[in-house]
């Protein structure tokens, strides 16, 4: 009932962690049995260690948060011996380990893909929201050509599934999704954070040290759902939906929009045991519906056939259900 598939990657259930919001999972092990989630996605790992952006880096917003962590991490030399074995231990035999990689050039993406393939991961997630230093710090996520080249270069050196993580900060996300698919992506992760900003009017300065930051949490869920819906209707590649998920109802919404799996991010800061509870709640909701995950994927698309008869879900139902 819960099993799903991202290309060749089989998952026991569709619930994964979102990159950067759960570390490598080690601190989360005290809160729940992480072998019950579909898989863990690492924080973005870069070739060299990165100190990240100046503080403050995090700000709570009315329905989510702004962050400007700046891909702080200790680099691949640390991650491979120290963090990767822990992730494998946490997910056990059936969960998947997906490593999110960030390169500042095509060569760096290739190096990371080669090293993590050799180190043994179940899949790679390519963080396209990284600046290409060789091409004037243009983001891989905003140029279809650069996106396609980065994905194709990673695909050429690995035999594990490659997921391209898309940014919502573009005019037409379908165009970038098509480019990632043309580069050979086995799946697409949608979406990364939306660029935002907060200003302290007393000091007349931006609140975050870097000025701008990425907006995440429930505020972005309708944007993410819309993008998953548009992408899955246009591109024949499995999509992992991410953005503002807090409840099983939110997961089901993403599945109906077309996602084959989901990632949980910001909500884990408030509840580090959330992922496992979502798996349990999802199982109960699906049993009530008499449907499997696979049957619901893309079921809200007009071409999927008539809607299930019954009461429409009340607006804001997921927020009510959480109480
Ligand atoms: C504090 C924080 C750090 C993040 N770090 C990364 C990262 O290292 N790599 C990445 O691809 N996405 C990163 N993200 C984006 C999330 O993986 C996710 O795409 C986004 O937050 C939307 O999901 P959410 O609303 O459930 O948090 C980060 C998000 C947050 C809030």
Order of helices and strands: EEEEEEHHEHEEEHEHEEEEEHEHEHHHH
Low-confidence stretches: 318-323
What's the architecture in CATH terms?
A: Alpha-Beta Barrel
Count every helix, treating DSSP H or I runs of 4 or more residues as helices: 11
Number of domains: 1
Strand order of the largest sheet: 3-18-17-12-11-8-7-4
Rg, please?
19 Å
Helix content: 25-40%
In whole angstroms, the N-to-C terminal distance is 26 Å
CATH class: Alpha Beta
The description of the largest β-sheet is: 8 strands, parallel
User: Care to count the β-strands?
Assistant: 18
Q: Which structural category fits the helices and strands?
A: alpha/beta
Small-molecule binders: flavin mononucleotide
How does this model look, in words?
By secondary structure, the protein is of the alpha/beta class. The chain has a single domain (4-52, 70-195, 215-322), classed as TIM Barrel (Alpha-Beta Barrel). Helix content is 33%, strand content 20%. The chain has eleven helices and 18 strands. An eight-stranded parallel beta sheet has the order 3-18-17-12-11-8-7-4. Strands 5-6-16-13 form a four-stranded antiparallel beta sheet, with no helix packed on it. Strand 11, helix 5 (173-182) and strand 12 form a beta-alpha-beta unit. The longest helix is centred in the C-terminal third of the chain and has 16 residues, at 274-289. The radius of gyration is 19 Å and the shape is globular. The model is unreliable at 318-323 (pLDDT under 50). It binds flavin mononucleotide (FMN). Flavin mononucleotide (FMN) is lined by residues 18-21, 43-44, 65, 67, 69, 71, 100, 127, 165, 192-193, 216-217, 220, 242-245, 264-267. Flavin mononucleotide binds next to strand 6.
